Write a sequence for this structure.
């Protein structure tokens, strides 16, 4: 009976969804949602990421007559990190602030998706947007400086972790702060801090001691350390501590983000 | 589809829901209502009456200060994630679908709401046809007019409907022809057993679409019933609408006026049938005095009950 087959589509549900299939459906459908809503921007964003990465790597040589090999290595391994962190910190907050201002935030929030699945979908989007630029930046650096990269398989978990932590920090800011204008302001300040006051492109020893000490506890320098460790040999020591610091920041931000997503005032 | 006394209570129930915001603003003050499966229930009230606050509590975006919300055996306050599965929601704001194609926006939402791919695809096609928006099937959201966008939002909200479907001003910007198509789909949802909560301040539309309604004012329900029961009190009453000359003061109401409200340059007064002659003489006097331009006298509508209860005119553009 064909009419009977049509009816269930419109009839309200009689059972609740739960478990891994609920999570996976929510994850993949939210991923499709994000990719569709970003379709006009994703390619552009990748291009900008590539331009910034390549521009930084090539532009840095202009500071020197002949760039010292060590400086080349620091810049080549730091630039992708800078790019990934900025992406995570900016993309989420800007987009969420946008939907808050244009309306539609409530609709997305009211969709039946487990909070962790929604967060994981967003993490995947950031990875897709960021990793191509990382590869292109590293290839450019290799061609320009031949900076003696020693790429270890640890580059995979290191990249996943760095993007995770950057994305979760941005996501937490995006959802925990209610006023979109405040969100925009805070992310602008963060960009300034990341670009200027975090030892990502240069060793922390070149900073004032107190600032270097502060960066021991912030995630940015450690993010650079885990990536650098996976790309070079002997440049980074005590990478274990760096993994721990980055992971703690990532988990704490992720927890905060999931909590902020489910928060009811 | 209605719940029988012996069956499990499947209705949506709000019981003594109170929401006090930080700073003391009391948005909901002891709201109690129930919506049966298969019932279209209107929530009417002026802006700021507390309608949206109630809706946000139902879908888990706000927590009530006290009181309970439930659908069937499920406590929506304790389990906001369950609330999101059981309720589907069309917000008053436009959907964020600039970069989506119409079918895609509806289908992805259906998938997120747990529909099977083939079922969602079929239902999407049916809704697009039923709402008369076939020609925009493949169009991007950013290219749509406000009305078509609204209809797409409606389709997104009901492609896989919850047990409670909440529609906040669903017909905003929609042309009269497609409004009728939309109301047919609302009725189809209730026929399938969904409870429908219609939030609006358009009284005339609500009168035709709802089975029952509540008028909300200052966070409280000031009247509840079927449209005809709410009109009962106004039976035998007339409404006098006087267009005042712009810039003139509101004339003092004569003693026979039951209620009067001014919106812009329009003065709307309720009166008993017996006072019709007084009303005509008074209105003509205002025109002769140069205070008014024209007037109309007619039978009272649900809108007059609404005005009497809230002191507001529906679809309000009050100044």
């Amino acid at each position: 009976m064909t009419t009977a087959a049509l009816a269930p589509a419109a009839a309200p549900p009689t059972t609740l969804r739960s478990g891994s299939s609920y999570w996976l459906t929510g994850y993949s459908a939210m991923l499709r949602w994000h990719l569709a809503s970003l379709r006009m921007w994703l390619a552009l964003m990748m291009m900008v990421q590539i331009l910034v990465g390549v521009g930084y790597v090539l532009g840095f040589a202009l500071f020197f007559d002949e760039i010292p090999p060590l400086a080349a290595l620091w810049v080549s391994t730091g630039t992708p990190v800078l790019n990934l962190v900025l992406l995570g910190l900016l993309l989420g907050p800007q987009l969420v602030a946008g939907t808050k201002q244009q309306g539609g935030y409530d609709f997305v929030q009211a969709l039946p998706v487990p909070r962790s699945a929604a967060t994981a979908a967003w993490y995947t989007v950031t990875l897709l947007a960021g990793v191509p630029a990382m590869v292109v930046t590293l290839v450019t650096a290799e061609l320009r400086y031949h900076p003696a990269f020693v790429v270890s398989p640890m580059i995979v978990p290191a990249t996943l972790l760095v993007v995770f932590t950057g994305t979760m920090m941005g996501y937490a800011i995006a959802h925990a702060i209610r006023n979109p204008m405040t969100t925009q302001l805070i992310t602008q300040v963060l960009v300034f801090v990341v670009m200027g006051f975090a030892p990502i492109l240069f060793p922390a020893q070149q900073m004032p001691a107190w600032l270097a000490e502060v960066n021991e506890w912030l995630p940015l320098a450690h993010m650079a350390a885990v990536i650098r460790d996976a790309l070079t040999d002997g440049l980074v020591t005590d990478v274990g501590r760096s993994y721990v610091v980055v992971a703690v920041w990532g988990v704490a931000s992720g927890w905060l983000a999931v909590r902020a997503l489910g928060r009811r005032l | 589809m209605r719940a029988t006394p012996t069956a499990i209570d499947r209705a949506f129930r709000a019981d003594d829901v109170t929401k006090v915001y930080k700073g003391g603003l009391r948005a909901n003050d002891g709201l109690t209502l129930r919506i049966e499966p298969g019932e279209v229930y209107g929530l009417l009230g002026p802006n700021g009456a507390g309608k949206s606050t109630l809706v946000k509590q139902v879908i888990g975006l706000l927590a009530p200060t006290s009181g309970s919300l439930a659908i069937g055996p499920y406590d929506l306050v304790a389990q906001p994630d369950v609330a999101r599965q059981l309720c589907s929601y069309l917000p008053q704001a436009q959907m964020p679908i600039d970069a989506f194609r119409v079918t895609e926006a509806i289908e992805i939402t259906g998938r997120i709401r747990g529909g099977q791919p083939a079922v969602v695809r079929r239902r999407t096609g049916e809704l697009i046809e039923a709402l008369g928006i076939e020609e925009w099937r493949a169009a991007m959201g950013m290219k749509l007019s406000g009305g078509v966008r609204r209809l797409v939002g409606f389709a997104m909200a009901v492609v896989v409907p919850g047990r409670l479907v909440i529609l906040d001003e669903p017909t905003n910007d929609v042309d009269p022809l497609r409004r009728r198509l939309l109301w047919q789909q609302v009725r189809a949802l209730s026929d399938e057993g969904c409870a429908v909560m219609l939030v609006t301040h358009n009284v005339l539309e609500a009168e035709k679409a709802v089975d029952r309604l509540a008028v909300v004012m200052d966070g409280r329900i000031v009247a509840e019933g079927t449209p005809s029961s709410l009109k009962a009190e106004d039976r035998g009453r007339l409404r006098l609408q006087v267009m005042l000359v712009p810039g003139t003061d509101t004339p003092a109401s004569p003693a026979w006026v039951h209620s009067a409200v001014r919106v812009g340059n329009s003065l709307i007064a309720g009166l008993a049938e017996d006072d019709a002659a007084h009303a005509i003489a008074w209105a003509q006097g205002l025109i002769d005095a140069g205070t008014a331009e024209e007037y109309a006298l007619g039978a009272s509508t649900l809108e007059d009950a609404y005005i009497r209860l809230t002191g507001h005119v529906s679809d309000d553009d009050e100044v």
